[in-house]
Amino acid sequence: MDRVREILEETNPEALNRERQKKRVGLPELDIDETGDVILRFAPNPNGLLSIGHSRGVVINSEFAKMYSGKVILRFDDTDTKVKPPLVSAYSSIEREFEWISGVKPDAVIRASSRMDVYLEHAEEMISLGFCYVCKCSASKFKSLRDEMVACPCRENGIEENLNGWKMMILGEIGEGEGVVRVKTELDLPNPALRDWPALRIQHTPHPLVGDQYKVWPLLDFQSAVEDHLQGVTHIVRGKDLMDSTRKQTLLYEHMGWKYPKTLYWGRVKLHDFGGFSTSSIRESIEKGDFSGWDDPRLPTVAALRRRGYTPEAIREFWIELGLTQKDISISMQTIDSKNSKIIDPDTVRRSFVGDPVKLSLIYRKDLSGIVEGVSMKNHPDHPEMGYREWGLEHRVIYISKNDYFEGIVRLKDFADIEIEGKNAIFISRERGESAHIIHWNSSDNCRMAEIMIPEDGENKIISGLIEDSEYRVGQIIQLERMGFAKIESVSNESGNISLIWLHG
RNA sequence: GCUCCUGUGGUGUAGUUCGGUCCAUCAUACCGGGUUUUCAUCCCGGCGACCCGGGUUCAAAUCCCGGCAGGAGCACCA
User: Fold this and answer.
1) CA A336, C1' B27: Å apart?
2) Which one of A100, A121, A216, A412 is separated from A224 by 20 to 30 angstroms, measured CA to CA?
3) Beta-sheet strands, E only, within A303-436
4) Mean pLDDT, range A211-224, rounded to an integer
């Protein structure tokens, strides 16, 4: 080691002063040009609400915008009316979800379907300039020609002829699948996917927002390319499955003399806790009735996380920590849960929920005088300033969970040691004995019916029981002692009964 | 098959640009201990990794070559 030090002193003295490696925190630096502008976009397809995977895009893009005081655009890429038809309710839902996750409003919201005239004009211009041509070959015929690096017959048509074909497409005189606009590229490109790639195709299926006024719709690679340029997007952050998209678009930008944004990629993400899923498959399952809706707690959607009580901060921290690697990763919800616990624990009150209750009579031995009228306990063990809750014990009836029931001595938390014999709980002492196991409980004086929904093994299990009385409000997150965190979903006006939904341990 | 991307502990991640106190960072998980009248939170300790093989060099996680493994794209989807 000293020998190394000597060598370093001679040859590379700076290395000695180098800081010991540290974990970089936060997102990496962006490559910024002279203007210093940072304009990003998050571009989901509104064929469904956002999944957990999408939330990565929201977080990364909005955080970069925050870091550089830049802008982030929310763009709905809704130009497929057929394979992935837009879900009308998704537009506003996604906008709200974006705000909820990022904590900021998008600087602009754009719907591709409302920008059709712009795309169509650009397409016509590009045909006029000879960069694009109308191809009437079938998809399979084109594919085989492409694989052989052979130009299709349509490629040789003159601009006038292309313009004619284009007009026919626009007018709806050409059927679906019978014509497409292609961008000219070198035909000997090593990557066959890029050769004369398709930019616009015919769709006669009406769009739920703009109806059937357009017969020709741009494909993602074209629509996104034009829109990114028009909006002055400086950085694109996308999944690496879209690498070929970058390459196609770059080819188009070269034709137009535009400058392509800097592009960053992330790899595929799999959640350990959920099987494979896609927006389309989730939508299908919901429509089939397999799930109650986008916020069904079994679903890996943003709506479900929000419903269950996850904080957007936890989601943001999580994705920021993962950063932007191109590795395909498999992650566990435990990591998010852990972050969420740390965030919510300090100001979450403790409450007692007894599931599958067993009713016990509290018996005092005749020779013991110390009858207890009530107990008092903290709302939060570490924060007495959060107040106390007071329980009465006049009726001398208590409940414990069936899981905790056994004949013998146990400690009722914050109250007393008791001995259970049959249906009786015989008071021993308020002092805590040596080995008495602590369990939670409720007093019949102040508890009410409650049920909690827990997603488990693909179904939403309902556990009925009793929760201590308190001022509960819908949306409140509480910690059920010895169970975990849960959110209040509803409080019945008549009975006061509570419905909870499970968050995490 | 073609094109491309990626390989650091169980899971993620820092470090790789420009080789050097790197016997490798941090988080999470796990194990052990402490605090606590919750199985929560908190605190302490531990565990555990540079895909493989060559090469260059005084020195390689880092540079070069060759393997291998995993993933993605090859849609008139996004």
Assistant:
1) 11
2) A100
3) 329-331, 350-351, 353-355, 357-363, 374-378, 388-392, 397-401, 408-412, 416-421, 424-429
4) 96
Q: What is the pLDDT of residues A227-277, one digit of tens each?
A: 999 999 999 999 999 999 999 999 999 999 999 999 999 998 999 888 767
Question: How confident is the model over A331-358, as pLDDT tens digits?
Answer: 999 999 999 999 999 999 999 999 999 9
Nearest nucleotide, CA A328 to C1' = B71
Q: Which two tokens stand for residue A395?
A: 């009726």
Strand partners, A477: A487
The answer to whether the beta carbons of residues A64 and A237 sit under 8 Å apart is: yes
Residues contacting residue A182 through CB under 8 Å, at least 6 positions apart: A132, A133, A134, A135, A155, A196, A197, A198, A199
Distance A333 CA to B62 C1' (A): 33
Residue A307 in tokens: 């419903």
A484 dihedral zone (left: phi>0; alpha: psi -120 to 50; beta): left
Nucleotides of B under 7 A from a protein CB: 1-8, 10-15, 20-29, 36-42, 58, 61, 70-78
Which residue is it, tokens 């616009």?
Answer: A200
Q: Interface pTM (ipTM) of the complex?
A: 0.93
Cβ contact A400:A465 at 8 Å: no
Q: Which of A419, A381, A428 minimizes the C-alpha distance to A400? A: A419
Give the distance, in angstroms, between residue A1 CA and nucleotide B50 C1'.
21
Provide the CA A268 to C1' B68 distance, Å, integer.
22
Distance B48 C1' – A383 CA (angstroms): 37
**Nearest nucleotide by C1' position to the A179 CA atom:** B76
Domains in chain A, CATH or no CATH each: 350-504 (2.40.240.10)
Lookup: tokens for A203: 């769709």
Residue closest to A365 by CA, chosen among A316, A427, A296? A427
Interatomic CA distance for residues A103 and A55, integer angstroms: 12
Nucleotide nearest to A326 (CA to C1'): B6
Confidence of residue A368 (pLDDT cuts 50, 70, 90): low
